Amino acid sequence: MQKLEANNVFYKKENQILSDFSFSFDEHLYGILSDQQEENSNVLKVLAGLREPDQGNILLDGKNVYTTFQKKERAIRKQIGFVFQYGGLLSNLSVLENLLVPYDFHFPEISLGEKKGKISGFMALFGLSEKILNERPAKLTISARKALLFIRTYLTEPKIIFYDDPFINCNLQIKKTILQLILKLKEKQIIQIFCESIDEQLYELADKVILLQQGKLYSSNTFKEFKKSNSEFVTGLISKLLAE
Amino acid sequence: MVQKISFALGKQALLSYGKSISVFSFVFEIIYEIKNFFLQRKITRLILIRQILFTGFEALGLITFVAIAVGGIIILEGSAILPDFGQSKLLYTILVIIILRELGGLLTAFIIIARSGTAIAAELGNMVVNQEVESLVSFGISPVLYLVVPRVLGVVLSMIALNIYFNVAALAGGWFMAYLFAPIPLLDFLNKLFSEISVNDIASSFIKSLLFGFVIAVVSSYQGLQVSFASTEVPQRTIKAVVLSLIWVILFDIIITAIMYLV
């Protein structure tokens, strides 16, 4: 059973983004809702090991996700996928080359034909034409670029996936496909953690929503339960999300 | 142990976001990752080929023009001044010294700074802003291995090749100008020229092009990766890359020239 554990994590930039944060994530879908919405990306990046915590540690199956040891890093990164909010596609490579970068790096043993087959499957699922495979990302619509970030992550079949504002810049069809895939992975018991600032739908589907107040763990429960809450802090956070 | 220190320093350098990281740790990681570059050819080969095409092949036109013009000008100036002092025989010595030892490497480096140094700094800076560098880190790919090493190797190889090409083109330009004023058979010209070229001249030219290429690529990559969030930082870092590359190239030129004359 996969487990991601945050132990007394502190992370500060201008604000205290995480403060004595401890939580154990197992094979479910988690949403994080914070009163510092602008710091959502940083919260996810610390949990994913892309930022070094000031204090505390984050362990994936007992191994620190932030490591400066190259060999360990490669093994850990193979297990963690991160869907960026925007950007993230290499602008000087074609779409196909972009999709192949992590795939070739982690799975050099798989043939190019097999990789292309899997890429075609995902392209069809997201309703993207294979003609764009030879285009540069800058030529594509924002929605298509966002879809490619998901495809690139799903191709390597990570055991834990972080989504930074997954629905931002998505058209309806792509949003629908993302929802289906997230639910499918939820059934497969993949650890999925997201922050979303414009749509409450994913929070409704999450097994648990984690509320952060000034970087501290305020509470964790289902979104349904939080909606019933009388707490001023909780209702404030939810109404802010619904208002977006 | 070396690997651990190197990777730690490199990762910190690239994810420091505004913290000042020593350029020495950056150079240290580049040297270490050159070994890994050959092990990860599948994902890095394309970047190297593109860098050589851009820095080397696409600069050929400009290099040809500058080299022929400079070679011609040296002969023109020399033929006008030297006979007044009864030193016409020094013309070939001067041509060899100026082109092979000094101007060949320096002018090629200046052209590479203007074309490739600026392009590398701006491209990497924009990649940081667009989260492209961070996405590489999220895959577990060292940005130094994937982005910097192919650029360093591409610029160094291109610099060496372009320097040789510049020298040949400049000497050809010199012959052409000499031929216009006092027709001299190519073979005679080459004989006189080769009698003036020493192993030291060739060694000096090679060492300079190797070092200049390395310095330009490292300084430009370092400055590009020092961009933290805003696209407005990109031109600032690009200018810094040009200024620092020029300073370092000239400093190394002085040092190598001094060493070569002392040897």
In terms of per-residue confidence, which ranges of chain B show pLDDT below 50 for 5 or more consecutive residues?
Answer: 1-6, 16-20
- The total of helices of chain B stands at 10
Name the overall outline of chain B: elongated
Report the uncertain regions of chain A: none
What is the alpha-carbon Rg of chain A in Å? 18 Å
Per DSSP E runs of 2 or more residues, the count of β-strands of chain A stands at 10
Q: Can you tell me the CATH architecture of one domain in chain A?
A: 3-Layer(aba) Sandwich
Describe the global form of chain A.
Answer: globular
Report the average pLDDT across residues of chain B.
86
Number of E-type strands of chain B:
0
- Count up the helices of chain A: 9
What is the highest CATH level, the class of one domain in chain A?
Alpha Beta
* Sheet with most strands of chain B: none
- Structural class, from secondary structure content of chain A? alpha/beta
Structure notes:
The complex is a heterodimer of chains A (about 240) and B (about 260). Chain A is an alpha/beta fold. Chain A has a domain at about 10-55 and about 90-210: P-loop containing nucleotide triphosphate hydrolases (Rossmann fold), CATH 3.40.50.300. Chain A is about 40% helix and about 25% strand. Chain A contains 9 helices and 10 strands. Chain A has helices at about 40-45, 70-80, 95-105, 110-125, 140-155, 170-185, 200-205, 225-230, 230-244; strands at about 5-10, 15-25, 30-35, 55-60, 65, 80-85, 160-165, 190-195, 210-215, 215-220. In chain A, the strands form 2 sheets. Chain A has a 6-stranded mixed β-sheet with strand order 6-7-8-3-9-10, with helices on both faces. In chain A, strands 2-1-4-5 form a 4-stranded antiparallel β-sheet, with helices on one face. In chain A, helix 3 packs parallel to helix 5. The longest helix of chain A is centred in the last third of the chain and has 16 residues, at about 170-185. The model of chain A has no long low-confidence stretch (mean pLDDT about 90). With about 260 residues, chain B is mainly α. Chain B has one domain. Helices cover about 85% and strands about 0% of the residues of chain B. Chain B contains 10 helices and no strands. Chain B has helices at about 1-15, 25-40, 40-55, 60-80, 90-130, 130-140, 145-180, 185-195, 200-225, 235-260. Chain B is elongated. Mean pLDDT of chain B is about 85; it is low at about 1-5 and about 15-20. Classes of the chains: A alpha/beta (about 240), B mainly alpha (about 260).
